[in-house]
Design brief:
Elements lengths: L1 E5 L5 E2 L6 E2 L2 E14 L2 E16 L2 E6 L14 H10 L9 H8 L2 E2 L2 E2 L2 H11 L4
Parallel strand pairs: 1-5
Antiparallel strand pairs: 2-3, 4-5, 5-6, 7-8
């Protein structure tokens, strides 16, 4: 299932320097994976804009973020990332790599995964003494 969305804000804030800018530098389509709905994978096609801002003598460019939906450089929504990290339904808090290999042969929560996705997510959620 694919959803298409576009942002409508007029201004965005630079995450590095905090400058608010309304000057659009360009834009592109971003594809995000989200938690499955009705057993189908969900992909969000989001059209975002790149803004430019002047600070002192330099010009910085940055992409607008949608709260709760996007994070810098992420290809998954925060909901899906938390679910894969073990904070979502049906995933144990500590998962040995043998368990991850077993689970990655199928799909997890309707989202096809690989061991290279699950193992780092497992390790990030492990509770170490």
């Amino acid at each position: 299932m694919a959803l298409t969305a576009r942002t409508v804000t007029r201004e965005a804030t630079c995450p590095d320097c905090g400058v608010v800018s309304g000057r659009v530098h360009g834009g592109y389509r971003r594809r995000l994976a989200d938690l499955a709905a009705a057993g189908q994978e969900v992909a969000i096609d989001l059209v975002v804009r790149r803004f430019s801002a002047r600070r002192l003598r330099a010009v910085c460019t940055f992409v607008e973020q949608v709260d709760g939906l996007t994070e810098r450089f992420a290809r998954r929504t925060p909901r899906l990332r938390r679910s894969l990290a073990g904070r979502g339904p049906g995933w144990p808090r500590i998962c040995p790599s043998r368990r991850a290999r077993t689970l990655c042969s199928d799909s997890y929560a309707g989202f096809r995964t690989s061991s290279s996705t699950l193992r780092p997510a497992c390790l990030a959620s492990m509770i170490l003494p």
